[in-house]
Amino acid sequence: MKKIEAVIKLSKLDEVQCALGEIGIDGMTVCEVKGFARQNRHTETYRGSEYTVDFLPKIKIDLVVMDESAEQVVKIIIKSSKNGKDGDDKVFISDVEEVRCALAI
To answer: What is the pLDDT of residues 38-95, one digit of tens each?
Structure first.
């Protein structure tokens, strides 16, 4: 099994979710995160005060898939989250040795 972690733009979540749903992926964990990489820092004004924005809001998606599905899932995430700018998406893939579920007894 593979764990896929993807960091994407907020505006691309629905598109990624729908694209994954089309191939039968219907479960994932989604978190709001902030980060920066190649995007330039910029200044904004809030209530008359100027401040520098270092971190941009993003969405992090975590999902675990079977080995044979991993490459297809990664391609779909990249294709559906891309908008042609630096920092569009980052996808991390790692091996999962074991999965345990807590069941109510």
So the answer is: 556 666 677 787 777 677 788 999 999 999 999 999 999 999 988 766 656 789 999 9
69 membership: H or E segment, kind and range? helix 67-81
Question: Among 64, 74, 94, which residue's Cα sits nearest to residue 19?
Answer: 74
pTM: predicted TM-score of the whole model, two decimal places: 0.78
CATH numbers and ranges of domains, the chain = 2-95 (3.30.70.120)
DSSP state letter for 26: -
What is the C-alpha separation between 46 and 43, in angstroms, rounded? 10
For the record, the structure tokens of 23 come out as 């191939």
Q: Do the strands 29-35 and 89-95 form a parallel or antiparallel pair, or are they unpaired?
A: unpaired
E-strand ranges in 1-105 read 2-8, 29-35, 42-46, 49-53, 56-65, 89-95
Half-sphere exposure for 11 (CA within 13 Å, toward CB) = 4
Residue 97 — φ and ψ, nearest 5°?
A: -80, -35
